């Protein structure tokens, strides 16, 4: 059986996430000042205009050279993994597409503005979760999907 690449689907996912990410960030920048917040679902979801010069939770704030280098390496590794290891695995290719789009979306922000635009502000079980964006969501879903795929693959390949 010939293993294949799902180029059309992976390009669609990557471009759709990237376009949605960049559109929502541009809309927030255009319509809200930093710190403005609007309640969408009271006690659970707000749209809050925020800027982040670091990574998750603001760690490594202001280290643009570091983020540039790490993102280039990660994008290269994702491309390599897609070409060499994910052939014939539709869901793995989708997960890599989500990771690629998320990394690229935040990379574009850092290169263009020196910071990342965040706006999704949630309260989960009383915890004020750090504000994030579509690219961050894409990265998270991609990682979770890879973990699930690896878990099922390891169970399938266990020696009995």
List strands and helices in order, with pairings:
Layout: H1 7-31, E1 37-41, E2 45-52, H2 64-84, H3 90-113, E3 116-124, E4 127-128, H4 134-156
Antiparallel strand pairs: 1-2, 2-3, 3-4
Helix pairs in contact: 1-3, 2-3, 3-4
Description:
This protein specifically catalyzes the removal of signal peptides from prolipoproteins. Pathway: Protein modification; lipoprotein biosynthesis (signal peptide cleavage). This is Lipoprotein signal peptidase. This protein is of the alpha+beta class and 160 residues long. 58% of the residues lie in helices and 15% in strands. It has a 4-stranded antiparallel β-sheet with strand order 1-2-3-4. The longest helix is centred in the N-terminal third of the chain and has 25 residues. It starts with 6 loop residues before the first helix and ends with a helix. The model has no long low-confidence stretch (mean pLDDT 90).
